[in-house]
Design a protein that fits this description.
The protein is an alpha/beta fold. The chain is built from 7 helices and 11 strands. The strands form 2 sheets. An 8-stranded mixed beta sheet has the order 1-2-3-4-5-6-9-11. The protein has a 3-stranded antiparallel beta sheet with strand order 8-7-10, with no helix packed on it.
Length: 251
């Protein structure tokens, strides 16, 4: 189970290169409105020990300190990445923190990109939407084309409808990155024809500038999950590639 400081790394990311992580969530807990069966942070119920969130000032100070150290040590930073132990857009000061981060980035590491890994559940909020429009890489998740399968894979807390998320993502006019986890479980398969076709129709409707398709990389909390191979995923998305979509595959 991962437990991250407010600013951590940089680490080598499969998708983003040298990535300096920003965790807006509790250092010793987890806060998420999904409880994904594959989450490397573990189940939500196991992360209840700490509910304290860092303030916007604390995030800014920690980011300044780490970026300054990286500059002095000659450590490259490709991405300043909001991820951490849960869903970053749940932080009540998310929009303010993004503004502060962009200012710090511009002053200390202007070549770095700012990325946000999000489950997309909060893009309906105007402040979250505006903040995500400002960052270089809004990386937004849809793992399943139906509510029933999302309930199986993502286990959302509260009301969640795939159609609502898709409608909200249309406001990005394609200027975002769609990320999707491909995997198999005891009672579902991301590569099943009806699942794959439904997902591809969402991709075609949203036409994101890039699609990140990935699979299990670390130990998952649920049992019986099966990762897919990079070659297998490439074959599955080949129709979209032929249509001109830019798809990054990480096995």
């Amino acid at each position: 189970m991962m437990r991250e400081d407010t600013v951590f790394g940089p680490i080598r990311s499969r998708r983003l290169g040298s990535s300096l992580g920003v965790n807006l969530l509790p250092r010793n807990g987890k806060l998420c409105n999904f409880d994904c069966i594959y989450c490397e942070c573990g189940w939500n119920k196991d992360g209840l020990g700490d509910r304290q969130l860092p303030s916007a000032q604390e995030v800014e100070d920690a980011l300044k300190a780490r970026l300054t150290a990286c500059r002095e040590e000659g450590i490259p930073i490709d991405s300043i990445t909001f991820s951490g132990d849960g869903e970053p857009t749940l932080h009540p000061a998310f929009a303010e923190i993004i503004d502060r981060t962009l200012a710090v980035r511009d002053a200390l590491f202007p070549e770095a990109r700012v990325s946000v890994l999000s489950n997309a559940t909060r893009v309906c909020r105007e402040d979250v939407f505006r903040a995500l429009r400002k960052v270089d890489n809004p990386i937004l998740k849809i793992d399943a084309p139906t509510d029933a399968l999302a309930a199986r894979i993502n286990r959302p807390v509260g009301t969640y409808h795939v159609a609502d998320i898709v409608a909200a993502l249309e406001r990005f006019e394609g200027d975002f990155v769609l990320q999707t986890m491909f995997l198999r479980g005891p009672d579902f398969d991301s590569s099943a024809p009806e699942v794959l076709q439904g997902w591809m129709e969402i991709v075609r409707r949203l036409h994101p500038r890039e699609v990140m398709v990935y699979t299990l990389d670390r130990e998952a909390p649920a049992e019986g999950l099966e990762k897919m191979t990079a070659a297998g995923m490439a074959a599955l998305v080949e129709p979209l590639v032929r249509e001109g979509f830019r798809i990054q595959i990480r096995g």
